[in-house]
Amino acid sequence: MKAAQKEHLEALTDLGYMYENGIHVEKSLEEAYELYSKAEDKGHPRAINNIGMLYYTQKMQEKIKGTNYQEAALRFRHAAEQGHPKAMANLGCCYEKGHGVPQDLKKARE
After folding, report:
1. Which residues contact residue 40 at a Cβ distance below 8 angstroms, ignoring those fewer than 6 apart?
2. CATH fit for domain 2-109, picks 3.40.50.150, 1.25.40.10, 1.10.10.10, 1.10.287.1080
3. Are 65 and 32 contacting, i.e. CB atoms less than 8 angstroms apart?
4. For the chain, which residues make up each domain, given as ranges?
């Protein structure tokens, strides 16, 4: 928490994950989103991917009224362009299923 207060990007992202999953803190998707957003604003790829997952898995339903695959795919692409492996896989799934992007099995395999 002290490192996150000093806006250390890994700490913001880790603490966001803890709030997202209720690990040693009371679960709060809103707090997780805020912490991830601070790291996302500074271009941290894991935080960007994690926000994408919030959108993709409907965890942000209260905030966005359901899934938002376009927002998820946008986040996954941004993090994938920075070389984040999970984001690459997540973007591939979006292309495979046509979630937020046109379905394209060739791009999904890439």
Report:
1. 47, 48, 51, 75
2. 1.25.40.10
3. no
4. 2-109
CA distance 20 to 40: 16
pTM value > 0.85: yes
Is residue 15 within 8 Å of residue 33, measured between CB atoms?
no
Q: Do 72 and 81 contact (CB within 8 A), yes or no? A: no
What tens-digit pLDDT sequence spans the chain (110 residues)? 999 999 999 999 999 999 999 999 999 999 999 999 999 999 999 999 999 999 998 776 666 555 689 999 999 999 999 999 999 999 999 999 999 999 999 999 99
